Structure formats: C-alpha cells, structure tokens
Amino acid sequence: MPNFKDLLKCDAATSFRIMGKVVKSPAKGQAIELQVNNAEGHYVKVLGMNQDPKYYPLSKKGHTYETLREIAHLRPRTRFIGAITRIRNALAFATHLYFQNRGFLYVHTPIITASDCEGAGEMFQVTTLLPDKDKSIKEVPLVDKKDVVDYNKDFFKAPAYLTVSGQLAVENYCCALSNVYTFGPTFRAEKSNTSRHLAEFWMIEPEMAFADLQDNFELAEGYLRFCLQYILQNYMDELEYLEKEHERKAKEDKKTPPPSIIANLKLVAESSFKKLTYTEGVEICLQVIELIFLPVLLIYYVVRMRKMAKLNSKTSSHGVSILTVSTKDTLLSKS
Q1: Do 36 and 1 contact (CB within 8 A), yes or no?
Q2: What interhelical angle do 236-252 and 261-270 show, nearest 10?
Q3: CA distance to 41, 220, 305, per residue, from 232 (Å)
Q4: What pTM was estimated for this model as a whole?
Q5: Residue 209 and residue 181 in contact, taking contact as beta carbons nearer than 8 Å
Q6: What domains can you pick out in the chain, each with its CATH number?
Q7: Is 107 in contact with 195 (CB distance < 8 Å)?
Q8: Are 292 and 312 in contact (CB under 8 A)?
Q9: Cα distances (angstroms) measured from residue 166 to each of 102, 107, 169, 171, 200
Q10: What is the pLDDT of residues 274-314, one digit of tens each?
Q11: Angle 181-175-117 from CA coordinates, rounded to 5°
C-alpha cells in the first residue's frame, strides 16, 4: 500500500475506510479477516486520527465495570457493552415480532402521568416549580395562607410523575381494540441499591380481551421462550463471549464458577413450564421446609440450648447441678 508508513503511525480510536477481500482467517480466535493486497482495487483510508493517544482512556487491556461507568461516552466501543447492546436490541425486536405476529397492537402510553398505577412503587415527581440550584427554596409558590405547594402554577396545574406502569392507560385501548401491548420505559424511585431494583427499566405489558388465566399462562410462556430462542439462534457469538467474560470475572474474584449462561437459556427455551395452583405451591413450600429448614433449625436449637445450659447451670452446696432456662429464649414453640 502506498500509504503503509502513515498507517503504522495510527493508534487506538483511529477511523478507517477499507476496501479489501474477506477471507477465512488462519489465525486462532477469529473466523475471518480482511486482506488488502491489491494496489489497484484495495485501499485503506484514514478518516480520523486520535490526536492525543496518550490520554485516550480505552486500551487493549480489559477494564472494570466501574471504570466504564466513569467514561459513559466511550464504553459502547468495548466488546462487553457492544455484546449486551446487540442482545438487548434483539430482545426488543423479538418482543415486537412475537406480539405483532399474534395480532396485538402496539400502544404508546404516557411517560408523564398523574396516575400511580396500582400503587406499584415510589414515583419520581416532574415539576417546573423548583428554582434553579443557586436560588432559594422559598421561591416555590405556595397556596395563600397555607404551607402547601400551589400546583396551579405548575406546568400541568397538578402533581405529575414519571410512570411506574403503562397498564392503566393501555387497558382502555384493550376494551376498544381488543389485544394490545405497551413496551416502554418505566421508573421506580425506591432507594434500593440492589441488582433487583432499577430506577429506570423497560417493561412489556400486554392486555387481552375475553381471555382467561390459561390464555395468560400460554402468552407469557410463549413470549419468554420465543425471545430466548431468537437470541440463541441469532446471537450465539455474543452469548459465548459473555459466558467467557462471566467465568473470567468469577475467577478473578475467586468465586465459584457460575452456571453456564447458554445452558440455562436453552433449558428455559426448550422446557415446558409447570403450572400449579396456589394450594399446590404452598404444599411444595411446606415439604421443602420439612425436608431442609426444620432439621437445620433443630440443630441450631440444640446447640443454643447447650450453650444456655452452660451459662445458667449452678452447683448447689450438695453438689447437685441445677439448670435454669428462660422460656423466652427457646426458638421453637408448640405452635
């Protein structure tokens, strides 16, 4: 290539336009490669160079998730975020494909609402009444002679919030248009920093007219299995990478190797779901308690009683051991 020496000067984050031939790669770890070996038809053009590679935060080595959070504008360039984004895109596409193929209509429900749907969670309030950060809170308008906010001066003239669910809004369309669904962002303001709580997430909420519980079962099971089968068929490369990344992270943190992501997805996608009544569910829970938890509690109870015996035992003047145990310290009652 006539500009080969210039290409050697390029560093990370350089943009290229390349014309070449895609061939099977002899190298390990990659299926194909791009050959640029024809001076007449092939070329490599530099579209943009990294002007200061010394300070570019991404490198060839891996980065922790905490580091990626600090450079949100660059993290989509990493393989990890790229794989997750492609899979999320596929799941969203599969969601619409599943419901559209079954005659459902997609309804856009409001993101800003005055409704606390079913009291599903704490809500983020939306208001134009709060002053700028450098101004006093005293500037918030109040109702005359009352220590309450005057929402008549707010944008919507009433309290408004980010939605916790589109269900209430989409039910109206169901009564008019039959089967419908909404799929969009929802928000919860619970102060909980766990992996099971998110401040913002996308939720799928279908509504069916003239449907019973069995129809609900079949729709939910079919939807979940369809989405998993779709990514297993179309995005196996991303799943294999994420599985290796998951294993690497567990090894790095010296934790037990996690179960296979792909095996778990296949298990759910290829298995039928067990359906049972609440009564059957309670009976199963009671069996688990009887087989697992009661023996553990009994052992704990015996150990606790022995410790109490040592603490409360007293020797009388005749050498007789007297055991005093407070009934409030016992763990199991007759009930």
Answers
A1: yes
A2: 130
A3: 38, 19, 54
A4: 0.77
A5: no
A6: 4-56 (no CATH), 75-123+164-275 (3.30.930.10), 279-329 (no CATH)
A7: no
A8: no
A9: 20, 9, 6, 9, 14
A10: 899 999 999 998 888 878 777 777 787 888 888 777 776 65
A11: 60
